[in-house]
């Protein structure tokens, strides 16, 4: 469908990638991976046509349409949320007008037997079919589905987009993009502004998307759930793996071990050759051999190993000074901004050494709670207190953006460092992958991931016994996230982390506080236990709502469309999946029983079927079929029980 042919892109005389080629096929689910700065976002812009390559070309058929979601984009603020979302269907307006005009023209004519009349009817039929194929007539429903799935509430649909934060406006742009249904979706970090439930909805949507997908993400779980092909950009080359991200990591490790062995052998060969040249350079009898070895070196294709893989990002937080046993305690804590209620009834207790996650929809109060603890926002209800000798280290969600862009990486740390640690600043920066001349870079030229690492390095300069981290992994690559996670697991202080990154939280936290619909609820256990419990609670809510909704529909003609669309869709999806499983097993049992019946007929009349009834292979096949039927019957019982359980 889309062909990338020998594409080269250079910056400042250095190739970002060189002569890379691959195909994007229909229904492809591609995860584009590589370290920060490898050129992933640039490659998307090359495919889109926003960046002209320095060599090669991208071939895109005329009928193929592209949809692109960048990490940052300009958004429009002149309409309501729903009106802005409906603008995704502007391509249907011309088609809708054509249908109206043709209908009006046909209605004004009475030459029913003429060829012109027949042609008009055919044109109207084609236009109508095309219109409905593109989603015409159901624009409001599809817009509602996308907005609810991405976390908006119905009462927010008429709010002006200008009243929402940048993250929420990005969600509107994502909704518009999905509703346009381009042939190929190019998504650059789409989960950065989404909460856990919205990410799960997006996963489901993308799995069923009829077009192709090229996705950049640092969310390992999201990649695994959505993609089945992984393209890595490394050292200016692309490596194409026909598999999901987790399997790619294993294959990449094997590839790199082979690469490292080849690199080691080549370096030994180079050293031996250079040694030979030096020893015999001035001996006339060896001049031919020396010249031959020099030419060999000149022609040698040097094997490179990515520096990222050779380095080691060892982050170790300073030992935490001892605090009181209870570090944070809030009682009926609440916050409102004027008439806007954010949350209330927050009864939160965090003890020394605990690692706790705050999760929930954006705008439900997680960051606000953190800012209350920091004294940046006054609370409007209840009370809270910090324990004895608590010293807070705080990483704000926009920490990476509020650093002074006009000073260097080194100066950023030097301005806050005191005492003997000033002598170790270069070592600390080296641990965060800032080496050599990179420490003299201005902050303004750093990527989002580099700024996050620098902000985290700055946080480490002082010993804290309570770390409050608000979305610390946004823009960090997977390797940096893994090493930060390990450092936090080794940290002996107390941790409060706001995050939507399921893989990052998994194994790190032992308690979850969920901010939802203005209240705060405690969940004991890790993030996986929380997600499993949350899903069960949602299904139970649906079961409770189903009976009254049906009764209302029967009594007063009110449809059950008033239920939350997202919850109903999830429940219906579970039902359909279970029904399909039962149906498929039943078909397989029917097929196997048919084969057994044929073999019974053969054994009953062997001469007519020209078989030997004593043939052991026949009995082996017959017994295998019988065993398969038993296994499938067992599967059917389990699947049927699950279906009945869902149906209540």
TrEMBL record:
It comes from the Bacteria. It holds the Pfam family ABC_tran_Xtn. InterPro entries: AAA+_ATPase (IPR003593), ABC_tran_Xtn (IPR032781), ABC_transporter-like_ATP-bd (IPR003439), ABC_transporter-like_CS (IPR017871), ABCF_ATPase (IPR051309), P-loop_NTPase (IPR027417), Val-tRNA_synth_C_sf (IPR037118). Gene3D superfamilies: P-loop containing nucleotide triphosphate hydrolases, Valyl-tRNA synthetase, C-terminal domain. One of its GO terms (molecular function) is ATP binding. Residues 2-260, 328-542 form the ABC transporter domain. The keyword Repeat applies. Residues 543-563 are annotated as: Disordered. Residues 568-602 form a coiled coil. Keywords: ATP-binding, Coiled coil, Nucleotide-binding, Repeat. Belongs to the ABC transporter superfamily. ABCF family. YbiT subfamily. PANTHER family: ABC TRANSPORTER ATP-BINDING SUBUNIT, DRUG RESISTANCE ABC TRANSPORTER,ATP-BINDING PROTEIN. This is Probable ATP-binding protein YbiT.
């Amino acid at each position: 469908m889309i062909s990338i042919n020998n594409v080269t892109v250079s910056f400042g005389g250095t190739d970002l990638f060189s002569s890379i080629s691959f195909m994007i096929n229909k229904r492809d689910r591609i995860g584009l991976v590589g370290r920060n700065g490898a050129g992933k976002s640039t490659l998307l812009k090359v495919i889109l046509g926003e960046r002209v390559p320095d060599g090669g070309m991208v071939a895109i058929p005329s009928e193929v349409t592209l949809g692109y979601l960048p990490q940052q984009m300009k958004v429009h603020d002149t309409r309501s949320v729903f009106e802005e979302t409906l603008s995704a269907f502007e391509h249907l307006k011309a088609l809708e007008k054509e249908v109206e005009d043709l209908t009006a023209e046909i209605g004004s004519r009475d030459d029913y037997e003429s060829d012109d009349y027949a042609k008009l009817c055919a044109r109207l039929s084609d236009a109508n079919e095309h219109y409905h194929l593109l989603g015409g007539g159901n624009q409001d429903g599809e817009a509602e589905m996308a907005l609810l799935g991405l976390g908006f509430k119905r009462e927010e649909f008429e709010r002006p987009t200008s009243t929402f934060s940048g993250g929420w406006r990005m969600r509107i742009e994502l909704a518009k993009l999905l509703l346009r249904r381009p042939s190929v979706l190019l998504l650059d970090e789409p989960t950065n502004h989404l909460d856990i439930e919205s990410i799960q909805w997006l996963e489901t949507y993308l799995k069923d998307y009829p077009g192709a997908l090229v996705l950049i993400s640092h969310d390992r779980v999201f990649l695994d759930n959505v993609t089945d092909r992984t393209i890595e950009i490394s050292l200016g080359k692309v490596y194409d793996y026909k598999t999901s991200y987790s399997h790619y990591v294993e294959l990449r490790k094997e590839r790199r071990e082979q690469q490292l062995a080849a690199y080691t052998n080549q370096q030994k060969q180079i050293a031996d050759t250079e040694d030979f040249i030096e020893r015999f350079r001035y001996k006339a009898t060896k001049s031919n051999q020396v010249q031959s070895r020099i030419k060999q070196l000149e022609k040698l294709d040097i094997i490179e190993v990515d520096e990222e893989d050779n380095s080691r990002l060892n982050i170790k937080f300073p030992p935490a000074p001892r605090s009181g046993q209870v570090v944070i305690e809030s009682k009926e804590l609440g916050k409102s901004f004027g008439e806007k209620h954010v949350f209330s009834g927050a009864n939160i207790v965090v003890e020394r050494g605990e690692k706790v996650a705050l999760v929930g929809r954006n705008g439900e109060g997680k960051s606000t709670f953190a800012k209350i603890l920091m004294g940046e926002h006054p609370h409007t209800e209840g009370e809270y207190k910090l324990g004895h000798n608590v010293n807070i280290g705080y990483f704000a969600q926009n920490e990476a953006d509020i650093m002074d862009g006009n000073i260097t990486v080194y100066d950023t740390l030097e301005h806050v460092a005191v005492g003997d640690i000033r002598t170790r600043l270069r070592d600390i920066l080296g641990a965060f992958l800032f080496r050599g001349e990179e420490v003299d870079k201005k902050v303004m030229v750093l990527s989002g991931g580099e700024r996050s690492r620098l902000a985290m390095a700055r946080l480490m300069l002082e010993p804290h016994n309570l770390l409050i981290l608000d979305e610390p992994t946004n823009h960090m690559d997977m390797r940096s996230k893994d090493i930060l996670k390990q450092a936090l697991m080794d940290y002996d202080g107390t941790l409060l982390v706001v995050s939507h990154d399921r893989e990052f939280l998994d194994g790190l936290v032992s308690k979850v506080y969920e901010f939802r619909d203005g209240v705060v609820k405690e969940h004991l256990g890790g993030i996986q236990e929380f997600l499993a419990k949350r899903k069960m609670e949602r299904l139970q809510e649906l079961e409770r709502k189903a009976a009254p909704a049906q009764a209302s529909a029967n009594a007063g003609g009110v449809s059950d469309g008033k239920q939350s669309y997202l919850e109903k869709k999830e429940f219906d999806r579970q039902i359909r999946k279970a029904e399909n499983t039962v149906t498929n097993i039943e078909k397989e049992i029917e097929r196997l029983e048919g084969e057994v019946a044929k073999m019974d007929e053969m054994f009953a009349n062997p001469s007519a079927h020209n078989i030997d009834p004593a043939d052991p292979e026949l009995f082996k096949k017959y017994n295998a079929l019988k065993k398969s039927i038993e296994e499938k019957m067992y599967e059917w019982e389990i699947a049927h029980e699950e279906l009945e359980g869902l149906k209540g």
